[in-house]
Specification:
Blueprint lengths: L2 H17 L1 H30 L10 E7 L14 H10 L3 E16 L2 E10 L3 H5 L5 E2 L15 E4 L1 H8 L9 E4 L2 E8 L8 E2 L5 E4 L3 H4 L18 E6 L5 H20 L8 H8 L2 E6 L4 E4 L2 E4 L8 H10 L45 H14 L6
Parallel strand pairs: 3-9, 5-7, 8-12
Antiparallel strand pairs: 1-10, 1-11, 2-3, 2-6, 2-10, 4-7, 5-9, 6-7, 12-13
Length: 384
């Protein structure tokens, strides 16, 4: 094929497209949307499944998760109360360091301007454990995270330093307003570091000790003293020579002892069934080299320990889900077609009228819900 014939083909293609402008426009838009969607999906997959945290020795990081029942309030099975974090940090023998972090929105004010930002509360050993160095100034250290509400210091992300301070070399020592509280800027995080949360890039970093000062009314129960309230995520850095399996085995006795201690505290529930389920909880360690993806069930890794996505993991968990300890004894399901019902509407019994108690008792409602949910999801109403 010569250059002349190639040019002739190109001219013919252009004339053909010019004679069909509608088709040409549709083809161009389809290609543009396809290329854009492919690029966006690849960027998402790259961040979630391929790219690790931009820290030295990221493969030694481990995420601590709670597996099982929990008494009182929590923000997901990857969250811990601060007293639990302290116990795990001070009494374990397999981690060099244990760090905590929590992401939250905040108002940020400087030079008469105010904006909404994402803030990451971090423990004093956060930057040291991750091996990060400041772009300028210094980073939050252990001495900045000792006294509750006593360390109003902040570290800016590199992007915040660029966008709001125009790379001001004198930014260290300036004062900013965060949630109507004055903080001193002590440094700038390294370029590219936006925290450990996926989809929530941090603009600022503040010591965990300032948690209550930053949110006195919002989530006020999730403070530093409440042992029953889980809110912060915990990561550990394995000691050299330790593996995920050896750490899991070594942490089990410590976790069990903390469970037993909690059962003796005065704010623990007295319900026998709840206490029994709480005692069955287990500590689960997972690779922590990638950012946490946030869902309505709380922060969790984008991939599980076997590298599977969350949908596949949900199917595996459903397959091996054990039945409820209490008997279900449900009657054979009946179809019921009523006003407003759809193809997937099923019920195993007539609905109770307003104010009428469930004749089978409230204690078995959870079991009954699971039974009816299986019917609705897997067996559509044949009447439609």
């Amino acid at each position: 094929m010569t250059i002349t014939s190639s040019l002739r083909d190109v001219r013919l293609a252009i004339r053909s497209l010019a004679h069909a402008p509608g088709f040409t426009l549709a083809a161009v838009l389809t290609l543009a949307l396809g290329i854009g969607a492919t690029t966006a999906i690849f960027s998402l997959v790259d961040q979630v499944t391929l790219r690790k945290l931009e820290t030295p020795e990221a493969d030694r990081l481990v995420l601590l998760r709670w597996q099982g029942s929990w008494c009182c309030s929590n923000t997901g099975d990857a969250a811990w109360s601060y007293p639990w974090y302290e116990d795990l940090r001070d009494r374990n023998e397999v981690f060099e360091e244990l760090i905590g972090r929590y992401s939250m929105p905040a108002s940020f004010g400087f030079a008469g301007e105010s904006d909404r930002v994402q803030l990451e509360l971090v423990t004093g050993n956060y930057f040291r454990t991750l091996g990060l160095l400041p772009q300028t100034g210094r980073l939050i250290g252990v001495d900045d995270d000792v006294t509750p509400d006593g360390h109003p210091v902040a570290v800016l992300s590199h992007e915040t330093w660029r966008d709001r301070f125009n790379f001001d070399p004198e930014v260290v020592g300036k004062q900013v307003r965060i949630n109507d509280r004055t903080f001193d800027v002590i440094g700038v995080a390294p370029e590219g570091w936006r925290g450990m949360g996926f989809g929530e890039p941090a603009d600022l970093f503040v010591p965990v000790a300032m948690k209550k000062a930053l949110s006195p009314g919002w989530m006020g129960g999730y403070d530093l003293e409440a042992r029953r309230s889980r809110w912060m995520q915990v990561f550990g850095k394995l000691k050299p020579g330790e593996t995920l399996a050896t750490a899991q085995a070594a942490m089990a006795p410590l976790f069990a002892s903390l469970i037993e201690y909690d059962l003796t505290t005065p704010d623990m529930t007295t319900d026998a069934y709840a206490r029994d389920q709480f005692r069955k909880a287990r500590l689960l360690l997972q690779p922590g080299a990638r950012r946490l993806a946030h869902t309505r069930h709380g922060p969790r890794p984008a991939l599980d320990a076997h590298g599977h996505g969350r949908i596949a993991t949900a199917h595996r968990l459903r397959e091996r889900r054990q039945p409820d300890d209490r008997p279900c004894n449900r009657a054979p399901p009946r179809d019921r077609r009523s006003l407003g019902s759809g193809r997937w509407t099923r019920a195993d019994r007539p609905a109770a009228h307003d104010g009428e108690p469930d004749p089978r008792g409230a204690g078995r409602s959870a079991c009954a819900r699971h039974c009816r949910m299986d019917d609705r999801l897997h067996r559509p109403n044949p009447a439609f």
